[in-house]
Structure formats: structure tokens, C-alpha cells
Amino acid sequence: MEMVFRFWFLMITVLFRTGLPSPEEACTIEIKQGSELYLKGYANIRDFNCAYNPRLLERSVPVTFRSEGRRTVFGNAVIRLDNRGFNCGGKGINKDFYELLQTGTYPHIRLELKETVKEAGEVKALISMAIAGVRREYTIPVDLTGGKSFRCSGTLRLNINDFGLEPPKKMLGLIVVREDIEIYFDLDLRVED
Asked: Is pTM, for the whole model, over 0.70?
């Protein structure tokens, strides 16, 4: 998820750097091989990582945008992540993770880049994220390197309770998963003409 967020932030930064005009423009962002997205969760006994299968990432994302000074506003900059594309390292923990996300009812996580703002040498992105039918917005800093081909990386920290999700407890409450998670992303991107 975070990888997708970083992707959008990177895309916005590239648009800032290319000096595109303020009327609404369109381009396609290619997510290249080597891109990475995973989340890190914490429990009282052992922390865990859930890596997203990079082969399931959308390879080309058409985007519209318009510049408003230091701000770029996006339209339809959406990526959907298949919940079952996450691998937490074992069949049991994967099952628990999919149940936590209510995958039977809500099979995807939806990420939308709303806008980016460039201020004092850094880029911040406004992201809308929907998990289990609940949508929340986050503003996160994004690291961008490169030009037409670039890398976008960052970390999104969130609380699963914000999405109405209850952290699982196992073995009669002896194993308790914390509600705070971190989503890491490192996207290798290219703006297609």
C-alpha cells in the first residue's frame, strides 16, 4: 500500500519537475519491475512482515492532473491492491491477515493520490485509502529521486482501528497484534509520453 502511495507522490513530483502547464493534463505512469511494497506489523511475541507480490502491481496507470502553484491536483489516480497479493510468511498468518481485512467482502485495498504539495524542498502527498469499506486520508512525505524515470519511496504509519478493524488475538489472548502498522514502499517508476 505504501508503495502505491509513494508511487503517486513520485508521479506528482515528476510532474512538478517537468514544468507541465496548469490546464488539466494526462499521462501514464509505468510501475517498473523492482518496485517493492510491504507492511510491518507488531505483536507482543513476534513482529511480522507482509510483502506484496510485485507481479500483481498494475503496470501502467493513466493519470490526469493540474498544477496550482506548488500544488498538483490529481484525478482518477487510483490503484487497487488485491488483499490476497500480500504474503505474511505462512498459511496461518496469511489467513488471519485476510480475515482482518475482511477479504471475503472487501477483496481490495484502494489507494488514490489526491494531490501533492512541494514546500521547502520536500514533497507531501495527500492519499485516500480504503480498507474493508472504510476510507481515510493521509498526508505523507515522499522521497523522489531521478527525472523521467524515478524512484518514489516512503513509509505510511496507520492504526487499523481507524478502519474499524480489530487486531487479532490468538491462543486465548496470549498473542496480541498491535493496532499500529507501517506500510513501506519503494517504487521504480517511469512517465510514459
From this structure: yes
